[in-house]
Design goal:
The chain has 174 residues and is of the alpha+beta class. It contains three helices and seven strands; from the N terminus they run αβαββαββββ. It has a single domain (10-161), classed as Hotdog Thioesterase (Thiol Ester Dehydrase, Chain A), CATH 3.10.129.10.
Length: 174
Amino acid sequence: MNDAHNPAAAVIDEPATSGALDIQQIMAILPHRYPFLLLDRIVEIRRKERIVAIKNVTINEPFFQGHFPEYPIMPGVLVVEAMAQAGAVLLLTEVEDRHGKLMLFTGIERARFRKPVVPGDQLRLEVSVLAFRRTACKIDCQAFVGDKLACEAVLTCQMIERPRADTAEPTLGQ
């Protein structure tokens, strides 16, 4: 169902292969915000199959103040988080009531860090679906700087109901 007030709603109704999503459309899908929103653009989506996203890395990122002051490197866990956010966009676009949901990590396998990511780099995040259910996903992820592999991992995640402010913390497997 398309919603004129929600720019990302159209993603659900698009054909199997679609074009780019801008930052406003990404923010309509993901709950993340500064300083933890780690995607700038989606350049390709093949529903339930693959997504390609871009993260522009700048010296203005808050983590560079301490990681490391004389040699700024993007923390590997944040590269993994960026890949997970791309996977979450792919899965959440399949859910009409996604604003009432959260996507949580449930596993990280075979994570390898091949090249440091530094200010000025543009990360291209390529995520392919290994297993897809409406509430869970296993994805194969790679992060590139140019044609060089910077990071790779297999991630699993689960979708849960977003808890209301007056309820207990979210739990997995309910």
